[in-house]
Amino acid sequence: MTDLFLDCEWADVLASQLVSIGLVSSDLRHVFYAERDPLPFDPMPFVRVAVYPLLERGEAAMSDALLTHRLRTFLAAIPNPLIGYDSPHDRALCQFVLDGMDEPEPEGPTLSSIGWRHLELDTARERWWRDHPEHQPQRHHARVDALALRGAWLSQQS
């Protein structure tokens, strides 16, 4: 199994409009980050102020079809991925991307063996943020938040 840590950012109260997705492996050899293009039109005020300014755009900005294809390709190259997440919304949004979002016939490798693990690490994650003030300005960036979840999980393993 290869442990991966997931975080997603979303634009709406229902957590149904994906903004960005980040995955990092425990050894940091595998990193995935993508942003939706176009972005959701009318995000919650918090998202507009705290999340949108952190977005990288450029090559990270992908159409729904490309995002699905790239995520499937990324996961297909990892032996027995086990995805850890701290919010059911993150898992649902990741599954939405893997399923092709709203694409009728999504492209990319078929994935047969992805494991999922719900991680309850709120205290350890907050400790990671406190111990890594250099990352604080990027809090709510999906890749950095996935890194924080990884750090929280690793701190519980020793």
Oligomer: single chain
Main sheet record? 6 strands, mixed
Structural class: alpha/beta
Report the end-to-end length measured between terminal Cα atoms.
19 Å
Extended strand count: 6
CATH topology: Nucleotidyltransferase, domain 5
So what's the overall shape?
Answer: globular
Count of spatially separate domains: 1
Radius of gyration: 15 Å
Strand order of the largest sheet: 4-3-2-1-5-6
**Relevant CATH superfamily:** Ribonuclease H-like superfamily/Ribonuclease H
CATH class: Alpha Beta
DSSP summary: helix tally: 5
Order of helical and strand elements: EEEHEHEHEHH
Average pLDDT rating: 94
SSE layout and pairing:
Blueprint: E1 2-10, E2 18-25, E3 31-36, H1 45-51, E4 61-62, H2 64-76, E5 81-85, H3 88-98, E6 115-118, H4 122-131, H5 142-157
Parallel strand pairs: 1-5, 3-4, 5-6
Antiparallel strand pairs: 1-2, 2-3
Helix pairs in contact: 4-5
Overview of this structure, please?
- With about 160 residues, this protein is α/β, with parallel strands linked by helices.
- It has one domain: 2-Layer Sandwich (Nucleotidyltransferase, domain 5).
- It is about 35% helix and about 20% strand.
- It is built from five helices and six strands; from the N terminus they run βββαβαβαβαα.
- It starts with a strand and ends with a helix.
- InterPro entries: RNaseH_sf.
Question: Features of this protein?
Answer:
Nucleotidyltransferase, domain 5, 6 strands, 158 residues
Short précis:
The protein is an alpha/beta fold.
